[in-house]
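discrete fold record:
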Amino acid sequence: MRLLLIAITVLSYSTLANAHSDEIVEADMRSHIEILASDEFGGRKPGTQGENKTVNYIATRWAEAGLKAAADGSSWYAPVKLVERTPSKQKISFNRYKNGQSKSVRLDTDQIVLRGRAEFAQISNAQVVYVGYSTALSAAESDAMAGKLVLLPLRNPREREDIADYAERKASFVNAGAAGILTIVDDGGRWERNSRRYRRPRA
């Protein structure tokens, strides 16, 4: 497995910085993007032949531009160990409290996917808060979100262009200290795609 030491975002700069070139040309930038976005590179996913082709292409263009690698041994690459994780099991339960009484909420576990950054994660006795499509949090609201499970929809209403996208809404509550995010996926096709994605092995 080989990874470039320098961020891929500087890719289009490589041959443009050629010592033999006087200016940055849009056509060159577009050519690099079109090549790397082509089917030949297979999506450039880490650990695949598409990734190997990608890093080789970039390193070759840099060398042609007269750039020198700064890594030990004058190589553009450094070995990186990858760990593949496959979700093994999950468990989730909710209770609804009303008038001092607790009642278990029935859930179809096939309609729930849990995932986290750590190898093992557990959240207990956390309050669930539905936040809708909000993002702008005051200091007091941010403090109120700390330690809670935030429930928010994935897809924005089509008629509302003033609502932030899901990634921004999610990030605002993660930054506020939420213990976790519960995402509502109300589209059948979208659910199938997301559930397959999150249940497959992760590097």
Q: What stands out?
A: Helices lie at 26-36, 49-64, 139-145, 166-175, 188-199.
